[in-house]
Structure formats: structure tokens, C-alpha cells
Design brief:
Layout (H helix, E strand, L loop, with lengths): L2 H23 L4 H7 L10 H23 L4 H16 L44 H13 L7 H15 L7 H6 L7 H10 L1 H8 L5
Helix pairs in contact: 1-3, 1-4, 6-9
């Protein structure tokens, strides 16, 4: 199995896992669906879209296995090229897609917030009034503003470069995570969003320097 075969197989497995999660979200109310993952902007996928995506993914995985058995290493490489070109040459704004869903970051929608426990007034100590350290608070605020984001690792550096390039080509910020995740060997969408938020200032500054 070639490196491209492994990357495409891994990508298909990740997409199938995401589609399976979306199948479980179909019966959620809109408010619950909005909270179950940290979604990018998109139109909520309907049942037939989710089912069609699963059908096509399974068919593509079957074709990949068939080509691998025949020793065809070019098939997976062609799929990677098509995926890359789709990201670069897609329509200006695509809201109707199935965003990446990650089981590790899924929020529970079956249980609400834990209700507060009533504590007898007599059991509560009276508040102690202390002088407010105005100067210290101001110093802490300046220190927080001056704090720099952590140095990106190899994976984060790749995402930052992708994001800067896509922004320089006219893509909008809400589109970036979905587009980057579709590229081979990129992190899951939830992780991509985290990298984008952490390094947004650096990405936007770099995008202004990327040549057309």
C-alpha cells in the first residue's frame, strides 16, 4: 500500500465516522444541533444528504480497495489531486456541506446544566470586603495582552500556511476549517478551528504577504 493509499483510506474513514455522527444528530432540534459541536457556518444537512454521503463514501472506499488489489498506485494520487483542486477551484461560497463532526469533542445534549444546590443562609459565611487591587489588575491585563500564542508545531504550521494562502485567494474566514480539513494529512476540523483561533493574527498578517 502506497503512502497516498494510506492517506486516502485514513481520510475516508474519518469522513465516514463524521457521517455516522451526523446520522445520530438528525432527530435533534435545531437548538440542540447547534450546541452538539462547534460548527462552522453551514446549512444543516438533511437525512437524504447524509445517507447519500455515506453511500458514496462506501463506494469510493470499495473502489480504492479494488485498485489497491490490482496494484494501481495512481488512483489514490488522483483522488488527492482532485480533492486539492476542489478546494482551490470550488464555488465562491458553499454553505451546503456536511461539516466534520468529531466524537472526541461532542457535547452532551441529553442532559442540561446541573441545577444549583440550595444552601441554607446560616451556613454561608458573610462576605469579606477587601480593597480592590486596581493597579495589579491593570498590570495583569497588560500582561495578558502581551502574551504571545505558542510556537506552532509542524501540523499547526501547515494549517497556518493553508489558511493564509486561502485567505489571499479570497476565501472567507468561516470557510477555512472546512476547506483545510478536506486536504490530505490535515487535522480534524475541530483541531483546525483551534489552530485558526490561536494564530488568527499571524494568519491574517501572513495572508497579506502571500503573492497571488
Amino acid at each position: 500500500m502506497s503512502a497516498a493509499d494510506k492517506r486516502i483510506a485514513k481520510l475516508l474513514d474519518r469522513w465516514l465516522a463524521s457521517v455516522d455522527l451526523h446520522s445520530g444528530y438528525l432527530d435533534l432540534a435545531d437548538a440542540a444541533y447547534a450546541k452538539v459541536q462547534d460548527w462552522p457556518q453551514h446549512q444543516r444537512p438533511t437525512r437524504w444528504i447524509v445517507d447519500l454521503a455515506r453511500e458514496r463514501l462506501n463506494e469510493l472506499r470499495r473502489q480504492l480497495a479494488d485498485r489497491q488489489a490490482k496494484g494501481d498506485q495512481g488512483f489514490a494520487e488522483s483522488l488527492e489531486i482532485v480533492s486539492f483542486l476542489t478546494t482551490l477551484l470550488g464555488s465562491e461560497r458553499v454553505d451546503r456541506f456536511i461539516p466534520q463532526a468529531n466524537a472526541a469533542t461532542r457535547e452532551s445534549v441529553e442532559t442540561g446544566p446541573v441545577p444549583p444546590v440550595d444552601v441554607p443562609r446560616a451556613a454561608v459565611d458573610p462576605p469579606v470586603t477587601r480593597p480592590r487591587p486596581v493597579k495589579a489588575a491593570a498590570a495583569d491585563s497588560k500582561a495578558a495582552k502581551a502574551e504571545k500564542p505558542p510556537r506552532p508545531d509542524k501540523s499547526a504550521a501547515t494549517v497556518i500556511a493553508d489558511a493564509a494562502r486561502l485567505l489571499s485567494w479570497g476565501r472567507e474566514w468561516p470557510q477555512l476549517a472546512g476547506l483545510i480539513t478536506r486536504l490530505a494529512d490535515r487535522p480534524a476540523e475541530q483541531e483546525v478551528w483551534s489552530i485558526l483561533r490561536t494564530h488568527r493574527a499571524a494568519i491574517e498578517a501572513r495572508a497579506r504577504r502571500v503573492p497571488d
